[in-house]
Amino acid sequence: MQHLMRGMGIEAIYPKKRLSDPNSQHQKYPYLLKNLPIISPNQVWGTDITYIRLVKGFCYLVAIIDWFSRYVVAWTLSETMEIEFCLDNLKQALNINVPVIQNSDQGSHFTSSQYTKLLTDQNIQISMDGRGRCMDNIFTERLWRSLKYEDIYIHDYRNFPEAKLGINNYFNFYNNDRKHQSLDYRTPAQIYFRK
Predict the structure, then answer these.
(1) Is residue 95 classed exposed, middle or buried when 0-12, 13-18 and 19+ CB atoms within 10 A define those classes?
(2) Measured between alpha carbons, how far is 124 from 131 in angstroms, rounded to an integer?
(3) Residues 104, 127: Cα–Cα separation, whole Å
(4) How far are the Cα atoms of 12, 63, 67, 169 from residue 98, in angstroms, in the given order?
(5) What SS3 string covers 53-93?
(6) Helix (H) or strand (E) holding 174
């Protein structure tokens, strides 16, 4: 079937692998977090993009999470993979606080000069995972797993507005009500804001 579709120049609609393809023209930064003790909020933020399956189609989610508290500082949902939703997400987060280090993968969104300039203008150190090393950004990967298993797969959102409302409700619950064993059964907000 695939060879017939290819011959006709058509393809199925599904999320493509490797949402974070690199751009060889963009500067890459070293991974700064190996053996670094994370001891306070806003010391390290992690960011990543994931796809959100809808009943018909997909949308894309970017989030910034504080590594110490697991608090989701900011998130943005988009119907396309254009860079603007990543820039908007970072600006939203920087209106809340400024980290010492921001970690991401080497995808073209995060290595673009538009994105890195927002970080360097605030004197934020830039850290990037090694290629193919999802464990370098483990807290964000765990966030995606929690979101998908506790919300996305259960609710099976039909469209973008429904997904946006549902994800907003989930992150509100995640930050303010969901107690984490790794946080001594406190919520991310309790740790992030030192309540």
Answers:
(1) exposed
(2) 22
(3) 7
(4) 41, 15, 13, 25
(5) ECCCCEEEEEEEEECCCCCEEEEEEECCCCCHHHHHHHHHH
(6) helix 160-176
Other C-beta atoms lying within 10 Å of the C-beta of residue 92: 14
CATH number at residue 80: 3.30.420.10
Tokens of 172: 């509100």
Extended beta strands in the chain, E state: 44-53, 58-66, 72-78, 101-104, 125-128
Q: How many domains, the chain?
A: 1
CB 94 within 8 A of CB 122: yes
For 184, the domain range is 2-192
Per-residue pLDDT of the chain (195 residues; tens, 9 = 90+): 555 555 655 545 444 454 445 545 658 899 999 899 999 999 999 999 999 999 989 999 999 999 999 999 999 999 999 999 999 999 999 999 999 999 999 999 999 999 999 999 999 999 998 755 555 678 898 999 999 999 999 999 999 999 999 999 999 999 999 999 989 999 999 999 985
